[in-house]
UniProtKB/TrEMBL annotation:
Organism lineage string: Eukaryota, Viridiplantae, Streptophyta, Embryophyta, Tracheophyta
Lineage: superkingdom: Eukaryota
Organism: Nymphaea colorata (pocket water lily)
Stated name of the protein: Uncharacterized protein
């Protein structure tokens, strides 16, 4: 997903945590994956921790 894309929450069937990593200027990026009803798996990262 790009920042302009979206997905309905009802389409997400599973969220998983992936290893975090250090990005530019020592910024920690928290990675996670989302699995949709259609079987698509998206791997994403954010500067915010997944809750």
């Amino acid at each position: 997903l790009s920042p302009q894309d979206s997905i309905l929450l009802t389409e997400i069937v599973e969220v998983g945590v992936l290893p975090s990593f250090i990005h530019h200027e020592n910024e920690t990026r928290y990675s996670f994956s989302m699995l949709t009803r259609q079987g698509l798996r998206y791997e994403c990262s954010s500067s915010s921790k997944v809750q």
